[in-house]
């Protein structure tokens, strides 16, 4: 079989995955796999605020630059993730943001000035704001009591008000007229009341931003899917179409699949169930008009889900919803993605 990147490209799609500079440097097998299978990469950590500006005014672009050099060598596009987010914040950032509106505005602009100029000729698509929508009641990780409204209560919101999102997108567009500006979020894929409510909240935000001519080009749907959640293709297709109807592109930015705990059934059976879900999801995303799909990692051996205590399962035959297994063999999920790209 052709690599996923070529299967996707042949049909007008793009397949990519998240990687870290460390793994690209230390795991030659993984680096070779990414070089073969992915057409686009996204830094799992190196382009986040904490990585780039660990202390105010001290920028550390070396890990990101190492990843960008690798990408240049292997002719891979790179998308940026993420300029404004409430996680991966260096210790100094929330303190500075709490010092008032003009201080917060200055911090955002100084970060954008440096990062967007530094990466200008190598990253042409950024998650400008990541995960701004508050999780509705009934979500896995509901917001703390008192979080009112559609937006998550973050240091950015507290510093600049709900307009922080528009401020960020305008600041990015002012610095680069042709950057693809993306708003990225999660928990909008399932057929469930919380996901339905989060879709409504996201669409309300997008309609408001569009009505105010806020510069925005695309929406990233993370797609950290969960096998214990129902999935209804028709509902998801309609959602993607609703976003497209606003004149926005849609990317699937962080696809992986979390299984129930403890896993039920033997590995091949679980792999088959996950592959069915992935095929249904990717086919629906493409039917709705998405043209780019990235997985959050590429092999189960190095999935963030292994480190995330909320979901960490033991090593061995444990699934983590990526296209390649621990031995870097193609899983049924790989075939599911290939078939979805081929429209089969
Ligand atoms: O903290 C160290 C830091 O001191 C060191 O300089 C750096 C060097 O690599 O590593 C840091 O370690 C950890 C980092 O991953 C290494 O990659 C951080 O402690 C840890 O918090 C960080 O976790 C990442 C997490 O986002 C928070 O940034 C996960 O790898 C990454 O998979 C996860 O990805 C998020 C997306 O960005 C947004 N969507 C959800 C997704 C999963 O949570």
TrEMBL record:
Keywords per UniProt: Carbohydrate metabolism, Glycosidase, Hydrolase, Polysaccharide degradation, Signal, Xylan degradation
EC number: 3.2.1.8
Keyword Hydrolase: yes
Reaction it catalyzes: Endohydrolysis of (1->4)-beta-D-xylosidic linkages in xylans
Segments forming domain GH10: 1-340
InterPro entries the UniProt entry points to: GH10, GH10_AS, GH10_dom
Family matches, as PANTHER family: BETA-XYLANASE (PTHR31490:SF88), GLYCOSYL HYDROLASE (PTHR31490)
UniProt record similarity statement: Belongs to the glycosyl hydrolase 10 (cellulase F) family.
Identification of the protein by name: endo-1,4-beta-xylanase
Upper lineage: Bacteria, Pseudomonadati, Pseudomonadota, Alphaproteobacteria, Acetobacterales
């Amino acid at each position: 079989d052709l690599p996923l990147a070529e299967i996707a490209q042949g049909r007008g799609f793009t397949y990519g995955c998240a990687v870290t500079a460390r793994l690209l440097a230390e795991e030659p097998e993984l680096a070779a796999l990414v070089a073969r299978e992915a057409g686009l990469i996204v830094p799992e950590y190196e382009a986040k605020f904490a990585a780039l500006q660990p202390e105010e005014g001290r920028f550390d672009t070396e890990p990101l630059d190492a990843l960008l050099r690798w990408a240049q060598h292997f002719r891979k596009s790179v998308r940026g993730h993420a300029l404004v987010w409430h996680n991966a914040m260096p210790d100094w950032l929330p303190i500075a943001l709490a010092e008032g509106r003009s201080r917060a505005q200055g911090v955002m602009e100084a970060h954008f000035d440096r990062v967007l100029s530094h990466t200008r000729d190598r990253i042409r698509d950024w998650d400008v704001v990541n995960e701004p929508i508050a999780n509705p009641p009934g979500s896995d990780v509901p917001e703390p009591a008192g979080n009112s409204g559609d937006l998550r209560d973050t240091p950015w919101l507290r510093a600049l008000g709900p307009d922080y999102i528009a401020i960020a997108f305008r600041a990015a567009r002012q610095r680069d007229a042709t950057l693809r500006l993306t708003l990225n979020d999660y928990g909008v894929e399932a057929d469930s009341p919380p996901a339905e409510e989060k879709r409504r909240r996201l669409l309300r935000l997008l309609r408001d931003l569009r009505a105010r001519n806020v510069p925005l080009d695309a929406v990233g749907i993370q797609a950290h899917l969960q096998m214990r959640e129902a999935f209804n293709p028709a509902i998801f297709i309609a959602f993607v179409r609703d976003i497209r109807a606003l004149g926005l592109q849609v990317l699937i930015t962080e696809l992986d699949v979390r299984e129930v705990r403890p896993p039920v059934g033997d590995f091949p059976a679980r792999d088959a169930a996950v592959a069915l879900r992935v095929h249904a999801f990717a086919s629906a995303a493409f039917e709705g008009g998405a043209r780019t799909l990235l997985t959050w990692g590429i092999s189960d051996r190095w999935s963030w889900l292994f480190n995330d205590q909320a979901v960490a399962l033991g090593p061995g035959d444990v699934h983590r919803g990526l296209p390649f297994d621990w031995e870097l063999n193609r899983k049924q999920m790989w075939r599911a993605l290939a078939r979805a790209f081929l429209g089969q």
